[in-house]
Batch of 3 targets.
Target 1
Amino acid sequence: MKTVELYARVRHAVLIEGISERAAADRFGINARTVSKMLKFSVPPGYVRTKPPFRPKLDEFTGTIDGILGADKDRPKKQRHTSKRIFERLRDEHGFTGKITIVKDYIAGWRQRTQEMFVPLVHPPGHAQVDFGEAIGVIGGVERKIHFFAMDLPHSDAIFMVAYPAETTEAFCDGHVRAFAFFDGIPQSILYDNTKIAVARILGDGKRQRTRVFSELHLFTDRFGRPGKGNDKGKVEGLVGYARRNFLVPIPVFADFEALNAHLLIGCRKRLADRLRGHDGTIGERLEHDLAAFQKPLPAPYDACDKTPGSVNSLSLVRYRLNDYSVPTAYGHRKVLVRGYVHEVVIACGAEVIARHPRSYEREDFVFNPLHYLELIEQKTNALDQAAPLADWKLPEEFATLRRLLEARMGKKGKREFVQVLRLMEVFKIDDVAAGVRDAIARGAVGFDAVKHLVLCRIERRPPRLDMTIYPYLPKATVATTSARSYMDLLGGVAA
């Protein structure tokens, strides 16, 4: 191969000094045709193939290799053929006698030739992309998986994030409501992947049959990417990775999800001051163009929940998402509507809300409210000690003292009176009832009527007036009229 220096000397001799090409060939000891080539190129052009290399051992098997690699595109990434596995199949199934190196070289070239190419896009203001991401965090002292809702505005690169215990319908809806409130407007359109929360079915012509919940939330134009093509919404896909690296490293440790979301909100607002490569203004300055194209004002807040019909079983429980939640026993065997929020489950019978519980994300969990069962336990007092809803009920110590006194003085009837005292918490606050129990024990007026009277007096701020005829076991005080002789006897005793 001729060097760059030789190219320069030959070109100088012919083009500057003016000697002929043959004279230059004689001077530098090269062929005259080589001199002609040197005059066409300022530097050596390198070797250029005029036809593909001949591979006598591999060429008859290239169709088989292409078929294997093409079929792999529809297979899970972790179960696709490696170069080594393709070589083994060619050798064992097709009689290939060559070595693995030429197979690996061909496969490397095939993969390079078939890599997807992309077109740079421009994003007009007023549009958004949405996705969910996952990360690990410590919430309430427990390490768990965090699912975070992410909305990106491609025009300005402004972002919004909020974390949830699970990627659910109610989290999807609540994330939209929070994002719209954060940006104080609704985008003209939002691009999604084909999540089952929004898409019930992809029809034959590519149209999406939307879920009921997504249709209720529908205040904007929805767009969907191609199945399995994350690059169709590359902005928000990049945001998920950015947020995980910048907002959730090191592993976040917070008391609850509200504290974590406050941290994420600070990060979203702080990012508004960033200036990204290729843009003149900050994210916050470019966000003004997005907000100007948003739909305003915001409509009435959407009730971000999952609505599911249910029924109350014989144990006064309603099943929702594999967990059982209690309702008052008076609603046994009734049809109900369960509204599942991110952190709460609300159960209604007709137009009346009959139960509220903290949301459980465990499996096959039982969530009881002890007050729901007291009416039934008052009738079935033998179940008091083994009632599962009361097993983990933490009550002040004075309640246990009251029960001992009631049962000691009244027997089985005392157990029923104790349940009646507990039922006061269906109406009054536990602190007021506990104070009434303490006052009753201190006065020796142990009974349901006394406790109820003392609780009412405490709330109404009036002095208690107990009817002592109801409590015959209390010691009676006899007050007699004092005579003057008694005082004289007392004085005489002092004088003595």
Target 2
Amino acid sequence: MPTVADSSVADPVVPPPPRSAFYAEVPRLAWALAELAANWRGLKKSPRGDGRPVLLLPGLANGDSSMAAMRLFLRGRGYRTWGWRLGVNLGVRSVGQDIERLIARIEAICAEANGEKVTLIGVSLGGILARVAAHRRPDLVREVITVASPYAGPPTATNVWRHFEFLTGQKIGDPAARAMLAEAGMPLPMPATSIWSRSDGFVNGSICQEGDREGARAIEVVSNHIGVHFRPQVLRAIAETLAGSPSD
């Protein structure tokens, strides 16, 4: 496994999703929205929580508004939720070269929650950043849940790595970018859950999870990438994970 210090290890050959899946992403978004509307009342049967503080991290080119459905759902389950308040997620342009702005945000939430550790839920790039922050400040983080976050493999196993380069200003081959991804892929010192889909049209689902091991769990869902975080199946899996009960 690559380490932060050994970020020059050659990327394994992992293909991106087929182009047909990529082009189906937007049409499938309409279905995701319809599914959410049809199942919203049923989601109230999901387990209630313990009131812990939860920070939601949006995906690439998205901001706090994209997490509105998840935030409303988790509040309804009894959690205290916060947005990241760092604008649109443009990677290091938003969080800082050393993710110092994100860490400062987690520190502020921890203080506001009377010193209670914060649970991080990140979507796509937000999940990668969440894992890096958890590695660097385990004293602040209780648990990490990632949703469709490609932290466990090469960026070339996605159909959006060029979009990442354009929006963040980072080249995927830059030593700093490779080191950050390697850090995200290292096992976390707190409970970690990875929610992923093999039908994702943006990222190869195999690089969005590390499998099941002590302290880590992978939950497979059926979803496209855009809107994955408000799929009812995903919201239920998150509620069950936070409540400590297994997801089907």
Target 3
Amino acid sequence: MTPNRQWLYTAIVGIALVGAWAATPARADDPVPAVDPVPAANPAPSDSGADVTPATDAPAPDAPAADGLIHLVPALAANPYRLEPGVRPYLHRLSISPGFGALGSEKLFLLRVAYNPNAWLGYEGTIGHNPSHSVQAIVHRFSAIVRRPLSGRFQPYATAGYGMTIVLPGRSINADPVTKNALAYGGGLEFFVRSDLALRAEMLGMTVMGRQQYRQGLVAYDYREETIALAFYRTLGP
């Protein structure tokens, strides 16, 4: 096992354990902060005999919670790792997913943006950088994601896509950049920490195709891509 792959597996296991611990629901016997009752206001008498409704102060929409913080999602203030019951909703959801991992034996840093036009199908664009001492690569592709949404935190999926890989020779190699076609196929697993945040692990097979000097026809090279990432979800529209 290469050092890059060893630290990748260690990171996947560590993040999964931390996510599982953080997602543990609060116990029923945990103390609940007491809330002081608000005394009912007595309406002032009116000389005209008409009923007068007392004015009450409306709570400020951006008032801090009990922990002193202003939460962008108020529903998560009491339990930040709460997960909505039922099947995970993917319809009209946008996902931004930065991640890192390995392409072959070298490191890979990438950014993915995905949109789900319906519950079981999503479209995703990926751009990645594969640094190396002698040769670097820039990976960009367009993929389709197919899944069957389940209830619970774990959501598996399958994916396949096509893109281009730009190979950039380093200073030690006197050569021009080369662009090659690339096919990617595989699957992954999402672990939802809460309704809008998931940990994502993915393994792909990638076939890079192109012409090579002094050889006839296309030459194909197979690589394995392994990544872990965060996935930030937002719903578009009502």
